[in-house]
Amino acid sequence: MNNFDDSKKLYDHTSEKGDLAILGGSFNPIHNGHLAMAEAAYKKCLLPVIIMPNKSTYYKDNAEMADDNDRMEMVRLAAEEKDYLKYSDMEIKRGGVTHTIDTIRYLKSINPERKICFIIGGDSLEWIDRWVDADELLASLTFLSAIRGATDRERSEEIIRRIKEGFPYADIELLDMESIPVSSSEIRENIKQGKSIKGMVPDKIEEYILNRKLYKE
What we know:
Elements: E1 20-25, H1 32-45, E2 49-53, H2 68-79, E3 85-87, H3 90-94, H4 100-110, E4 116-120, H5 122-125, H6 134-140, E5 142-147, H7 149-166, E6 171-176, H8 184-192, H9 203-212
Parallel strand pairs: 1-2, 1-4, 2-3, 4-5, 5-6
């Protein structure tokens, strides 16, 4: 039996007050690596995973960014595949530069007691203590940092020890997952060069990208 309502995949942040996990990013496009992270997070915390595309960031060049509507539609298609996945257009609608703390403050204003798990890749773990208002952020969330294998675990544990020296209250857990060597930039480059992206994204998303002729230039 499904735990979540298949008929309502768009997360209603104005009324839903329960605990949740967030997978944020540009999703340009969303791919199988992102979805593997979402699955690993669900298995660990047993919370609905909200895929939340951002409008823009201060650390990425947005020149190759697909239209907001296209990125949202690809996320919607991905969320259809699993009961535990939902998606949110909150950061797209907010517009402008995205800071994680703005989203967390808003979600906490609806329910201050809610638990929020925030899913990140291992590369992001190195920088979370330098994110905007990091002290508040680290006090507000459980971070789930994806790792792949013993070497990645050892490096991540060392980073966590360093972060906790400055932020002893930080709640950071490691998220074991299968290694899926794929990136959005690689997908975009393959498309430019006329190469296949089969196996890098779900079939529905491959079909959408090809039909919409995304990332051709």
